[in-house]
Design brief:
With about 80 residues, the chain is mainly alpha-helical. The chain has a domain of about 45 residues. The protein has four helices and no strands. The radius of gyration is 14 Å and the shape is globular.
Length: about 80
């Protein structure tokens, strides 16, 4: 039972880390985590539920780093 709980916790933590690194789809040639600093700066108090971080970054679009803006644009283009 402890193993199942530990496994579930590890998978949940992995999902949160992936969200922080992949809030926007990576542009060609860019590394993971282009938005990580922006998330820490502008969205620190936001729950890591699906869509909440992306929504926060969208609200702070004008203040984002260039690399994060590029990832957000790539994500938007991919979604269309």
């Amino acid at each position: 039972m402890k193993f199942v709980i530990a496994l579930a916790a590890a998978l949940t933590l992995g999902s949160v880390v992936a969200l922080a690194d992949d809030t926007a789809a990576p542009a060609a040639g860019s590394g993971h985590g282009a938005c990580k600093a922006d998330i820490a700066k502008f969205c620190a108090g936001i729950d890591h539920e699906k869509g909440k971080i992306h929504e926060c970054l969208t609200q702070h679009q004008a203040d984002l780093s260039d690399s994060c803006k590029q990832r957000m644009a790539a994500h938007a283009a991919k979604s269309n």
